[in-house]
Design a protein that fits this description.
This protein is of the alpha+beta class and about 190 residues long. The strands form two sheets. The protein has a five-stranded antiparallel β-sheet with strand order 1-5-4-3-2. The protein has a five-stranded mixed β-sheet with strand order 8-9-7-6-10, with helices on one face. It is built from three helices and ten strands, in the order ββααβββββββαβ.
Length: about 190
């Protein structure tokens, strides 16, 4: 995997982190409004206020994670898939991938489809792109003979832009039909 120069000027750039952060803000504001009575109850000495405050603290941790990743972006160009974090740009060349697709899973938690971008490495080595380690998932291969793991990036908030970028930049031999499954967000990954 290469790092350094950055994607071409005509690359398809998707601001993944910013979209994720903006999706968290309405929930954060709503939970903050709910937490006000909890804080008031705690100030009066009522233990019931803890039940209002704990979800807010958990959501604050999640929002903090989204805030730290707000500058993350992905880009597609003629050379490969780029992961951009601040000024750091790293690339997975198309020649090192065996397949690329959008995977759709149904989430039992919120009854919505979860869409992930799957990048299947050709060599089957999980350490090929150590900076993508947090996205490694094991599941059935895209086709027989390929490794059973891939880099899966949640693109539910920007899947249509990712699909357009796939059709434009990914070589035909790497494209696979969009896969669907019913494992949900908690199992089978």
């Amino acid at each position: 995997m290469e790092s350094g120069r950055g994607p071409n000027d005509n690359a398809h750039v998707i601001r993944w982190g910013r979209r994720r952060l903006l999706a968290h803000l309405p929930g954060a504001l709503g939970l903050f409004a709910i937490s006000v009575p909890g804080f008031l109850a705690l100030a009066d000495g009522a233990v019931i206020g803890v039940f209002f405050v704990l979800p807010v603290l958990a959501y604050a941790w999640w929002t903090r994670s989204a805030w730290r990743q707000r500058d993350d972006a992905m880009a597609f160009d003629v050379d490969g898939f780029w992961w951009l974090r601040g000024k750091d740009a790293r690339m997975i060349p198309w020649r090192s991938l065996a397949g690329v697709t959008i995977h759709r899973d149904h989430s039992f938690f919120n009854h919505q489809d979860v869409k992930t971008l799957e990048l299947c490495p050709l060599d089957g080595d999980e350490n090929t792109a150590p900076w993508m380690k947090r996205f490694v998932r094991t599941r059935e291969p895209l086709r027989p003979g390929l490794p059973g793991f891939s880099y899966n990036i949640d693109v539910s908030l920007c899947h249509s832009r990712c699909e357009r970028a796939l059709w434009r930049w990914v070589p035909q031999k790497l494209r696979h039909e969009a896969r669907t499954g019913s494992r949900g967000v908690f199992g089978g990954r």
